[in-house]
Amino acid sequence: MSSPRHVLILGGNGRISRALTEILLKKSWSVSSVIRTEEQVKDLEAFGAGLPGKLNVLVRDLEKVDSQEKAAAIISEVNPDSVVWSAGMTVFRIDRDAAVHFTQAAVATPTVTHFLTVSYLGARRANAPWWTEEDWAGWNKVNSTFLARYYEAKVAADEAVITEARKRDGFIAVSVRPGGLTDKEAGGVLMGQTEKARGMTSRATTAKVVALLLESKNVKSRWLDVLDGEEDAAVAVERCVREGTECAEGEAIYSK
Fold this sequence. Notes:
By secondary structure, this protein is of the alpha/beta class. It has helices at residues 15-26, 41-48, 68-78, 91-108, 133-144, 148-165, 203-215, 233-243, 252-255; strands at 6-10, 30-35, 54-59, 82-85, 114-118, 172-178, 180-182, 189-191, 200-202, 222-228. The chain has an 8-stranded mixed beta sheet with strand order 3-2-1-4-5-6-10-8, sandwiched between helices.
């Protein structure tokens, strides 16, 4: 019998991370959850109590992870087979810099096979070929105004998912890109190169998609957009994996 999977979740106290932690622990996987403060430890440990998997909670300041080496030290300490990035607080130091350092460190660690990050559907530098010009104008307005700093950080981190994953054969790096986040229960999805450029996605559904991608045997490195919809999430993930759906299409990094 193979050993249970071990996932390092960065930003473990967020609502998507907590939902993902519950899913993975119910599968009897091990989860190492990195959080910001000691005050969060007991609550998160209580959240995972009674589930069949093993939960280990670590307090680490991701804002101080300012190099690949520091990210690698945390990965080495935990020794996971997979890393999930769902953190964010200080836009450039965490959402961009620390995220990129962990992507690089995961690629450079032979025992890590998967790196998944949670971004958002509009984090791109060029119009998606399946969107209209009106769709792109709407995202440009959002990304250049109230989401401007967040946009610059997330698009840089998403680009690293593509460029860094190319450095190691067989390494899997996926950016899961939901729409506006809600606290609704997990449900169906609209996934891939969606006909809708904007919409809502529940955090529970986002976590479910991340878990399904961690389990997938044939997924390749890519971006995947996901909105609330009618298709069963497991069916949608299997379809996107089988068809090689790539939501980074249209970006400069996609063609390099």
